[in-house]
Amino acid sequence: MSVLMRFAPAGTPEQYDEVIRRFGGDFPPDGLELHVCFLTEDGGFRVSEIWESQEHFNAWGERLVPVLTELGVDLPNEPEVFEVHNIIRR
């Protein structure tokens, strides 16, 4: 069952870009179906992702969190997690 994750990291768009750059050819990781980053009015950013499973997301988190920590991006809250009921693609 796919899951939707929503994050509200405390960081800048430049830090986000650096995270993506550091993973290079390893992004997107296995199990990631959709990744959307959008900017907020306060100069920050938010991320929403759809994953094939919670297990895929957890495996990615083990790789992602150390990079976020190194770059000073804080995750003040656990991500919101929702079970996906339906996905419609064009």
Structural commentary:
This protein is globular. It has helices at 13-23, 54-71; strands spanning 3-7, 32-39, 45-51, 80-83. The longest helix is centred in the C-terminal third of the chain and has 18 residues, at 54-71. With 90 residues, the chain is of the alpha+beta class. A four-stranded antiparallel sheet has the order 2-3-1-4. It starts with a strand and ends in a 7-residue tail after the last strand. The chain has two helices and four strands; from the N terminus they run βαββαβ. The chain has one domain (3-83): 2-Layer Sandwich (Alpha-Beta Plaits).
The percent range for helix content is 25-40%
The CATH class is Alpha Beta
Topology as a string of helices (H) and strands (E) = EHEEHE
In CATH, the architecture is 2-Layer Sandwich
Number of strands: 4
User: What's the mean pLDDT score?
Assistant: 95
The name CATH uses for the topology is Alpha-Beta Plaits
Which shape, going by the Cα principal axes? globular
Strand arrangement in the largest pleated sheet = 2-3-1-4
Name the structural class.
alpha+beta
Poorly predicted segments: none
Rg is 13 Å
Major beta sheet summary: 4 strands, antiparallel
Question: Helical region count?
Answer: 2
Percent of residues in beta strands? 25-35%
What count of structural domains?
1
C-alpha termini separation: 20 Å
